[in-house]
Design a protein that fits this description.
216 residues; mainly alpha; Four Helix Bundle (Hemerythrin (Met), subunit A); two-stranded antiparallel ribbon; 6 helices; 2 strands
């Protein structure tokens, strides 16, 4: 197994650890131990998403296994984080928000699978990449908000963690819906052109067969 795939595998293995830290009573929230560890775990796992892709391209180690594991790891990480946050901080992440975000992830995966079976790909849009950044900010902020709704920097300056988390979550819901529509339109346009080309090819082949049959 090459280095990029190993990093992707580490991201997948970090998911049950993240769930355990957020759900377990082993870590205390009194001094913020649980929140800091969970935020660091999620942030570290999210950063590896860019590292494995960069290394795979730089080293020429893009493999079928990597192409399968990388998006799977991303979807599992986001799904695990938001499902756990419904229990960990329901004030900011009610169940319906988790359903919208996770549903969007699997909708895009389904569209890409159908596109691949039809012989074309749907590239990640800039909007989708931006949504990923907002997801990281929102998850980390929601985790920290559980212990520190506000962080006193230096009197009278206060860092409003709660309001940053609140704004990031709602902005991310909006981005998830808009980017899902963007992916769907890209898929629809490509599949429509693909079907037209396939029908045209089938029509040409049938005309040739009829012409050849007539010549015989």
């Amino acid at each position: 197994m090459n280095l990029p795939n190993s990093i992707t595998l580490i991201r997948i293995l970090s998911i049950p650890v993240l769930i355990w830290v957020l759900s377990s009573g082993r870590f205390s929230s009194v001094n913020g131990e649980k929140e800091l560890l969970a935020a660091a775990l999620f942030l570290g796992a999210s950063i590896t998403d860019g590292i494995d892709g960069y290394l795979a391209r730089r080293r020429g180690q893009i493999t079928t296994m990597g192409m399968l594991l990388d998006p799977l790891a991303d979807k599992l990480l986001i799904a695990a984080a938001f499902i756990t946050l419904v229990q960990f901080n329901p004030r900011l992440v009610p169940a319906w928000i988790a359903v919208v975000i996770i549903g969007r992830e699997f909708l895009v995966s389904g569209l890409r699978s159908i596109a691949a079976s039809e012989g074309f790909t749907i590239e990640a849009s800039d909007l989708g990449k931006f949504k990923m950044v907002v997801q990281i900010v929102s998850v980390v902020a929601v985790i920290l908000d559980h212990r520190w709704p506000e962080i006193m920097l230096r009197y009278p300056y206060v860092f409003p963690v709660h309001w940053i988390a609140f704004a990031a979550i709602w902005f991310m819901v909006l981005l998830s819906l808009v980017s899902a529509g963007d992916y769907f339109l890209a898929f629809w346009n490509k599949i429509d052109r693909h079907v037209v080309k396939r029908r045209r090819r089938a029509f040409i082949l049938s005309r040739r067969k009829k012409r050849d049959a007539a010549a015989i």
